[in-house]
Amino acid sequence: MTDAAHEGHRAGIIPAGHWLTNEGDRDGARIIYTHEQIQQRVREMADEITRYYPAGEELLVLGLLKGSFIFLADLVRAINRPLHVDFIVASSYGSGTTSSGNVRLLYDPMAPIADRHVLLVEDIVDSGSTVNRLAEALGERQPKSLELCALLHKHVAADLTLEPRWVGFDAPREFLVGYGLDHAEDFRHLSFVAGL
Length: 196
Ligand code: IMP
Ligand code: MG
Description:
By secondary structure, the protein is of the alpha/beta class.
């Protein structure tokens, strides 16, 4: 972080953590989950997922973009079952840090859903609006099973219609970035999760 940026941060002009990079200066960053912790936990979750589904049954792993892209890439490589990958794009947040609760489906998976084991992969469950909206939309298409795997769960959602069967970490109720999670599109590429 440059001196000017540091002063800007101190003065509240530059958001905390704006200088965060994978290597180098992490002064002032509050790393919540390290790369190593995440990798270990993702392997554990993949083992649990592998055991949950009968051998030989094929999964359709549906990643919710953009936040799940790194998590999904690590997760599917450790799942020992035949699977296909597709994505869903939903949008509820603008550039702010609070959910609008108004979730739009921007891209619908091309893959057929009916009679398949669908595993939805989320980066983080916050208000639950996104999960509820997707569970409704996907449930209507008669999957053989529908489960949710979330890297992070803030446990603030009051009425989740689909509880995640697998959760990486019970996350603190603050705004988190890295490992796919963004703040106004910054920080997705970080290999760790930090608090802003
Ligand atoms: P929900 O609909 O309120 O549960 O929000 C879910 C979506 O909001 C996630 O898929 C994220 O993209 C985003 N989100 C929620 N909390 C955070 C956070 O702490 N950091 C970054 N993105 C978040
Ligand atoms: Mg986001």
